[in-house]
Amino acid sequence: MRLTFDDTVEAFRFEFRAWLAEHRPTAEEMAADPAISSAHLPDWARRWTRRMFDDGWLVPGWPPERGGRNAAAVETLVYLEELERARVPRTTNPQGLGIVAPSILDFGSEEQIARFAMPILRGEKAACLGMSEPGAGSDLASLSTRAVVDGDHFVVNGQKVWTSGANQADVCFLFCRTDPHAPKHKGISVLLVDMDTAGVTVRPLPHITKPEQTDLNVVFFTDAAVPAANLLGELNNGWALAGASLAHERGMVWVGTVMELESAFERLAGEAREVLPGMPAFEQARAVDDVVRCYIDVQAAKCLGYRSFAKLARGGSAPEQALMKAFCSESSRRLHLVGSELQGDRGLDVWEARRGEQAWIEQYFNSFGGTISAGTSEIQRNIIAERVLGLPRG
Amino acid sequence: MDLELSEDELELRDNVRRVLNAACPPSLVRSVFEGKDTGDALWERMAELYWPALGLPERFGGLGGTFVDVTIVVEELGRAVAPGPYLATVTQFVPAVCELGSETADHAERFLAPVAAGETTGTLAIAEDGRWDPAAVRAVARPAGDGWVLEGAKCSMLDADTADEAVVVARAPGTSGTAGLGAFVVSGDRLRVSARSVIDPTLRICDVALDGIDVPADRVLAEPGAPGTVDALHRVLDQATVAVAAATLGACRRIFEMTVDYAKTREQFGRPIGSFQAVKHRIADLYSIVERSTALLYFAALTVAEDDARRHEAASLAKAAAGDCQRLVVEDGLQLHGGIGMTWEYDLHLLLKRAKACEALFGSAASHRAAVAKSLHLLEDGTS
User: Fold this and answer.
1) What pLDDT sits at residue B60?
2) Would you give the DSSP letter of residue B276?
3) A99 located within any domain
């Protein structure tokens, strides 16, 4: 065990920090034209992604031709720390960079890589993930959007929901059923669907606290014709792609989440220092305890993250990584609840202008995105119990 | 930044566990619980294996191990519900002599070498009125000739009835708060001890009266008011606190493992109870809290080992997390075991009681959260 990184790793950190200081988009630039969905590429974001790609900082663990520099895992870790510290988003299309492009690079043809993956990595295209359906949420394998072969194309019919960024994406990574007679996990394929394909329509679902900023959508497919060449991987083997992501960074997904929690806690502590002195003794003691519990959660998540990363870096397994998603998202939810409660009835005020950010109560509602999307906390607990601890399936 | 145990550290853990499986089986713990054994043989075994010397510098006959090594041993002792003087001797007495003693008086040589050799045991008398806070000390040290006379009362001392030596914290008459604090080494037989009858009888928790104990000058670790004494006391408490958190988590992890095993094998309605989601989700939560608390524990141990500036806060975070951990693990561990957990014959209760006893020592979770609130300056204007 040790508290510091090797000098070579610190040298890597400073190299990136210096590059970042020179090339990062400015806070003003980002604020003037914010990304309003997870597939929105404002001009600054396009330039930024391209710059990172060209200079080998987009995915440091990859080779230069894919936007990297063959960095070691621990170097990628400090890279992610530095990005968070500088409050610069790595991308405004996280599912494109984190899931869609890597999956196409792993499973796609040269032509698919050239048409879809590389433009995503260069900031030219944005992607969305067509997974959940009205009848298939946590039980994703029950999805029923159909794709039927018809000559040299598939005809797609069905409906996706909660599709982040579909209103602004260029391409959809679509999970659909290609063999209705096979067992439910076996008859699924992935199609790369251009969002301007005839028969694809998007209905935005205004957000719970930001109706003007739409990220979630319903996507309808009505006799949409998708070229057979857009089938990713093998027919009926799509389920194998459902868990794909930036595999070499999988042990570090927590870095951004934990550092966001840390900065959320800084805001909470600031809020607390303002309001605590005016509270009656009992309420004050309770509120202090609530705030400190949030701090312990954040520090625990951080230590657990570094500990699990160290296991992976040594080539071992880190089963406790399965805990990070549920714990971090629930910690964030608790933290924002405490923030809103600290303010008493003033916490009801929705005062976007005050600090350029949403009210605690709004952020509390937003935080459910973390505990619901990408596998609810309940599903996470099933996964931990069954896959990590070996409890029998129900 | 590497917060996972190294190969050597993992090997130490495995070795300690192997030894304790043989030398400290539940049957031994049960004999101590029932007053049929003292556990002395276990301490002799530990001494044979140089465990008391582990964290001591080599110049005093120690093995030069780190505080992380000591934490590993203590976690395993908690897991085994081991009786004996290791915790008080190695994580309280030794740090007290190291941090408070003076080089010129050869305190370390005099008091630590016999510990390293397994010849003497020790403990620490600091708590009063249920508070492990130097500022709460009221026991008084009066100058008398070349030495001092100690008067007052200490509570919740480990092994006061068996330890050979005790470091006693007392203050100069008329001082308060962090002023005037001093530390003295008192022979164990000078203490007037009332051994308490506690829920975990393998921990010898005692209250102690200091009835005018005279201490010669060569047994004064820190004269009342000597510069650096308060800092040193906090450094001692950091180590003792992390160690008690380690003991708590050792017991908790074992309870968790037993609960998982039980949920896999106990069948009702024709299937293992662990297949029911109501059980599964609680067990997933136990796993989460045990892993999180362990991560904080070893971070704290590492800050102590590397003498990092965050050590004091990290110790409180670790103890607070361990406290919350035992709360959930004891409650759900016992609940999920059902009726069998309610019996004296089943081993679970040995662990439950160790976990609860450790929560109450060296500051509850709530008291350590209060300490963290202070380090976060929550109740100040933020400028301090």
Assistant:
1) 86
2) S
3) no
Average pLDDT, chain A: 94
Using the Cβ of A155 and the Cβ atoms of chain B, whether some distance falls under 8 Å is answered with no
Encoded tokens for B72? 């590993």
Q: What does the DSSP 8-state code read for residue B239?
A: H
Q: Rounded to the nearest 5°, which phi and psi values hold at B90?
A: -85, -30
Subunit contact A394:B68, Cβ cutoff 8 A: no
In this prediction, residue A355 has a pLDDT band, given cuts at 50, 70 and 90, of: low
Which of A49, A67, A92 is the C-terminal boundary of a domain? A92
Q: What's the pLDDT band for A351 if we cut at 50, 70, 90? A: low
Residue A15 vs residues A78, A259, A379: alpha-carbon distances, Å: 11, 21, 40
Q: How far apart (Å, rounded) are the C-alpha atoms in residues A167 and A160? A: 12
pLDDT at position B382 is 43
Q: CB–CB of B318/B302 below 8 Å? A: no
> Could you count the other beta carbons within 10 Å of the beta carbon of residue B278?
9
Show me where the domains of chain B are located: 7-116, 122-227, 230-375
pLDDT of res. B337: 98
Q: Tell whether domain B122-227 is in CATH 2.40.110.10.
A: yes
Q: In whole angstroms, give the CA distance from residue B361 to residue B241.
A: 8
Question: CB distance from A181 to chain B under 8 Å?
Answer: no
Low-confidence residues of chain B, pLDDT below 50? 382-384
pLDDT at B103: 76
- The more confidently predicted of residues B124 and A242 is B124
* Beta strands at A231-232 and B147-158: parallel, antiparallel or unpaired: unpaired
Domain span at A277: 247-388
* Tokens of residue A211, six digits: 């109706």
The minimal CB distance from A389 to the residues B9, B287, B366 is found for B287
Q: Which residues of A touch B366 (CB under 8 A)?
A: 289
pLDDT computed for residue A250 by the predictor: 80
Helix, strand, coil % in chain A, rounded to nearest 5:
55, 15, 35
Q: What is the pLDDT of residues B17-55, one digit of tens each?
A: 999 999 999 999 999 999 999 999 999 999 999 999 999
| Side chain identity, residue B116 | A
Q: Find chain A residues with C-beta within 8 A of B6's C-beta.
A: 1
A382 interfacial to chain B (CB closer than 8 Å): yes
Pick the CATH number of B7-116 from 3.40.50.2000, 1.10.3370.10, 3.30.200.20, 1.10.540.10: 1.10.540.10
pLDDT at A213 over 90: no
The H-or-E segment that residue A289 falls in is helix A281-313
Chain A positions in Cβ-Cβ contact with residue B292 (cut-off 8 Å): 300-301, 303-304, 323, 327
**Interface ipTM:** 0.96
Residues of A assigned a catalytic role: 249
Give residue A251's pLDDT. Answer: 84
How far is it, in rounded angstroms, from Cα A63 to Cα A67? 7
pLDDT of A352: 58
DSSP state of B136: G
- Determine the residue type at A233: G
A378, part of any domain: yes
- pLDDT score at A198: 98
Indicate the CATH number for domain B230-375. 1.20.140.10
Section A31-53 average pLDDT:
96
B193 touches chain A (CB under 8 A): no
